[in-house]
Structures are given as structure tokens and as C-alpha cells.
Amino acid sequence: MRLDSDPRLHKNLALVLQIASKHERKLYLVGGYIRDQLLKRQVKTGSHHDFDFAVLPGAAIELAKIVADELQGHFVLLDEANDTARVITEDGACFDFAACVGGSIESDIKRRDFTVNAIAWDADYPEQLIDIVAAEDDLKAGKIRAISEQSFIDDPLRLLRAYRFAALLDFEIESSTQGYIQKYCSSISTVAAERINSEFFLMLETSFSAKHVKAMGENGLLESIFPELRDCRRVTSNAYHHLGLFEHSLETLAQAERVLPEMPDWAKDSLAQTLASGVSRAAATKLAGLIHDIGKPETWVINPEGKHTFIGHDKLGAEMIEPLAKRLKWAKPIERFIEKLVRWHLRPGHLFQQGPPTDKAKYRFYKTIGEELPELIVLALADFRSTCGPGLQDGRREAEEKLFELLHNFTVYQVGTKKESRFIDGSELMKLLGIKPGPQVGEILDELLEAQSLGEVRNPEEAADLARKIYQEKYCR
Q: Which of 247, 330, 369, 476 could be cross-linked to 325 through a Cys-Cys bond (beta carbons 3.0 to 4.6 Å apart)?
């Protein structure tokens, strides 16, 4: 296998090599850039790339500072103890510098995580690749192979990184590496939450995350990260759920991954938006699918007729998100987003339980859910498709059509509410009713806007009459 293009053709990389040579440092390009070139993967648009360097004889942080200064880039200290730093240039290129472990590129390669990330390139011999761990064979075979068992002892985060790379490349983890992961899976608890988050969400950003999360569930690694899922194993299948709760949770994530391509373009735009730290709404929605039923074990009751009930599990599950998020150190936008999806995941289905919902019911549903509506529909569809018990066979197609109808009608609601110019504003309402500022003003204005959007009031006079009626009935008793 050969590189498609000479790395030196990248303007900033060529400059970095020149700077290193001037300061008597030997650089080896290693890791993902080489791997992706060999696989002909286009990982980023334009000229933006990530480059990882092994620096000989070391002093990588010092070199990174020099490179940042000469390229007018941004210096980031990554790990002072292990002599690693990053430089980000104006054109978006990212250069990571790490001291060469063991005093040679060969010893450095042997301390890396997986063979597919351990091919090196030397600018002095641009036509050759340094591959001492049969990495090219694993690339051709589509295998993730740990370089050694010691790799997981040195850094237990690699337990999770194995699955992240398998999902990223659509590769399989080979058997000996799977054995190491099972042996050391509990040691993931020693890794900083921020590092776990980064890897897990990166995995969820791929299109192949579900099968690898399922594999994590088979060897205990998943529950080492999310102990809230342990109790889900004891909840059995029932008339509505053909799977036990743990398996249903995994299947919901898988179904969410399949639902995403079915979304209309405007919903895909919403799902692609970033919540925080590079985490997309789509990735957070898939995680919500995995943990949406964590409130079920504590609310599980089997009545004398044998019916399984989980009354209030949506509310309890939402309450469990805050301590979970605190432990995993999620950014607040991620916590609020997932908490909302877990809290309301039953609401779309409930809307149709008593027959077709009224316009007022749909309006209030859209208003309550707000901009998370596309993501909630993804979760509701995934949850529904994961539920195939004998008691839930009729009307499946009709139920899905109703969920898609809710999704498509949301755009009509959005256009309608944006176009509406209130017949009465806050100051006019206070003057009309002779009241002072307070919560009741906002509550009455919300009801007036709802009535206006539904065509129940058609002019300022009718709006004023309704305002008086609402005020008398709600606040003058």
C-alpha cells in the first residue's frame, strides 16, 4: 500500500518539517493521517487535516511552541508529563507533537494503541512506510488489533478507543484484542470522565456505532461506563416488548441510527447542529435512545393479570439524568437536551391514544417540545420500532405514519407562530386588565397567542374579550 499523495505537498506540514530540521529535531508522521491516506478516506473537507508527529530526541512541547510562533498558530499544552502538545493553524490544520517513546521510532510504535494507528512516515525516505507491526495487513483485512496487552494497562481509555475506531472505519475487533478488553473492562473506571465522553460521543457520530455499542454490552464495558443500565438486565420481555429491557435499549440506539437517514432535510439540519464540544444533536439523540428507559427497573410492576407496568418511568428516568451527567461531566446543553428527550419520549405516542389529537393538543405539544421536536420524533420512532411484542402487532404502519405526520406538521406550526403578530402585547394587556407585571401576564399572553394561531380569535377586539374571560376565570376567584 502506498500514500496517495506526498504529505510534504501540504503547505504547513512542509513548513513544520523545515522548522524541525532547523532546530535539530527528527519528525516522524504517524497515526491517523497515514491510516486514512492508505484507506483513501476523506475525513475532512478542504485542506484541514490532523497530523501526529513522534519527535526525536524529544522536547516536543518546546518544538510545538516554536512551530506555533513561526506559523502564527495557537499552542495547546496536552500533557506536560508525557511531553505532548498541539498547534492549530489559521487554515484549520492541527499538529500534535509527542516525544518519541524509548528513543527510537521502532520502540515508539510498539507503545502505541492499535496496529492501524502505528504506521510511520519519514520525510527523508518519502517513498517508504515504517510498518513493524503488520498494520497494512490489518488495514486490508479490516481489523482492529491491539499492539500488545500492555497497551490497555498503559491507558485503559484504549478499551473504548478500540470500539471507536471500529465504528469509525467499519472494522471488526479481532479476537485476541476482544479478550484483552473483556479482561480489563472494569479499569475504564479509572479514566477521566472527559476522556471517556470524547471517545464515546466520537463513536456515536459514526454511522456504525450501534453494533459496537452492542458488543460493549456483551463484555461489560458498556455498564462500566453507564452503571444505570445494569438494573435494566433484570426487566424481562412482555406482551409489548419482545426483548428484555437491556436488549431493548441497545436496539433503540440501533433503530435511531437507521431512522436518521429517513428524516427530511430540514430535520437533518437540526440533527447536525452542535450541542457542545463537537457533540452533535444526532449523537446525543442516539445516546438518549440508549438510556431512555433507565427509570423502568424502579417502576416495574407485574399486576395479578400478568401485565407489566412502568408508571412514571419517563419522569424518573429524566430525574436520573442529572446525577449521571454530573458523574460523566457532560456539558450543560447536552444534559438538558438528553433530559428533555428522556422526559418526553412517550409524549408523541400518547398524543394519539384517545384518537386523532385536536389542533389545540398538537399546538400545545409543539410548544412544549419546541426545537427538539425532530430529535424527539427520531427517538419515538426508534423506541416504537424496537417494540415488537405480540400485544403490539396491529396498526404499526399507521402509528409510524402518525409520528411522521407530527414531524412534517411541525414546520407548519413554526411558520405560523413566526408570522403571527400579536393582537395584544404585554403593556396593552396590563392596561386592559388593570394588572401589574407578573407571571400571569405571560400566561395570558401565551393563551391568547395559541387562540390566535388556531383561529379562535381573529382581531384585537376578540382577543381583548378572551383576555378578560381568562383573567376572570383563572385569577379572580
A: 330
For residues 145 and 225, what is the distance between their CA atoms, to the nearest angstrom? 22
User: Considering just the CA atoms, what is the radius of gyration of the chain in Å?
Assistant: 28
272 contacts 281 by C-beta, under 8 angstroms: yes
Residue 287, C-beta contacts closer than 8 angstroms, at least 6 positions apart:
200, 201, 204, 253, 338
For residue 425, give the C-alpha cell: 402585547
Q: Name the H helices within 205-331.
A: 209-219, 221-225, 245-259, 265-272, 281-291, 296-299, 313-328
Q: What contacts 300, CB < 8 A, 6 or more positions away?
A: 235, 308, 309, 310
pLDDT tens for each residue of 44-97: 433 456 899 999 988 999 999 999 999 999 999 998 988 999 999 988 889 999
And the C-alpha cell for 270? Answer: 437540526
CATH class of 1-141: alpha beta
- Our CA angle for 340, 345, 349, nearest 5°, is 145
142-225 classified as CATH 1.10.110.30: yes
Q: Which of 365, 466, 357 is nearest to 422 (CA)?
A: 466
Structure letter (DSSP) for residue 23: T
Most confident of 30-34, 276-280, 329-333, 428-432: 329-333
* Angle at 375 (CA atoms; ends 373, 378), nearest 5 degrees: 110
Q: Does CATH place domain 243-419 in 1.20.1070?
A: no
Contacts of 21 (CB under 8 A, 6+ apart): none
The string of pLDDT tens digits covering residues 180-219 is 999 999 999 999 999 999 999 999 999 999 999 999 999 9
Rounded mean pLDDT, 426-446: 86
pLDDT digits (tens, 9 = 90+) for 112-148: 999 999 999 999 998 889 999 999 999 999 999 999 9
**Residue 382 · residue 255 · CB < 8 Å:** yes
Which of 420, 277, 255 has the alpha carbon at shortest distance from 335?
A: 277
* The dihedral formed by the CA atoms of 165, 171, 174 and 177, expressed in degrees to the nearest 10: 10
Task: State the chain's mean pLDDT as an integer.
Answer: 90
The closest alpha carbon to 183, from 211, 217, 209, 220, belongs to 220
pTM value > 0.90: no
Residue whose grid cell is 405571560: 442
Query: What phi and psi values does residue 96 have, to the nearest 5 degrees?
Result: -105, 135
* In the chain, where the domains are located: 1-141, 142-225, 243-419, 426-475
Query: What letter does residue 302 receive in the DSSP assignment?
Result: E
